[in-house]
Amino acid sequence: xxxxxxxxxxxxxxxNLADNLALFLxxxxxxxxxxxxxxxTYEYLDLPEHKYRxxxxxxxxxxxxxxIEFKNVSFSYPGSDNCVLKNLDLKLNIGQRLAVVGMxxxxxxxxxxxLCRLYDPTEGEITLNGIDIRKYRYxxxx
Length: 142
Description:
The protein has 142 residues and is an alpha+beta fold. It folds into two domains: 47 residues; 75 residues, Rossmann fold (3-Layer(aba) Sandwich). The protein is built from three helices and four strands. Strands 2-1-3-4 form a four-stranded antiparallel beta sheet, with helices on one face. A hairpin with a 2-residue loop joins strand 3 and strand 4. The protein is elongated.
């Protein structure tokens, strides 16, 4: 004879097992359904990187004096003939503030993308303390 406590405990254990088995099967089902997307994602991640990555370490300055300069920078997105930026000349010094305003599509975000090396300029160069940012180690520059 089984007591009421034992019956409740066994029913709870069986219910818990059934719930967890259902969660496991649902997870396996999702994995199988999403497998083609994983393949595409890994193929994308395995694409070769064409961006040049420099080898120079970024200079660590005790005086914290850094200067970023855009020298005659022009940029067109791949596959487009339209220049988003054309002959941009700009100096930025640490501690200075600069507001960049303009209409949508005038190149404000593109300028930041170039500064972060998400893209390289089509023409001209961007320098950090007089050295082209493409020559710096990418991970250290970021």
